[in-house]
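A student in our group prepared the protein record below, which I am reviewing. Thanks in advance; the entry in question is below.
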Amino acid sequence: MSAADDKNGVSALFTALLEDSAEDLYENAPCGYLSTLMDGTIAKVNGTLLDWLGLERVELVGRLRFSDLLSVGGRMYYETHIAPTLAMHGEAGVSHWSSRPPTGHGCRYW
């Protein structure tokens, strides 16, 4: 085995470990993550947020929009402030929101 082969093997192993760790970090992060399509439909959600909401992934992904998870006040703020910012800039930071998931249990997140 040449030094180049050994280096490529180590590099491939290291890359595989990083990919596994990145997915695990996303899924088990100490904060909730979700990604949406342009219309707000939930495309991906991590386990932390699912636990907080008390919902299963299949109940959210492709079925609900982000705004469906918000309380009435949160939805109003989202529609008047966050959604327009997303449309103009493609991103928006949210540090606090209240949810009212389909289970009826309210949650507050920072």
Notes: The two ends are 53 Å apart (CA to CA). The mean pLDDT is 79. DSSP finds four helices and four strands in the chain. The longest strand covers residues 42-45.
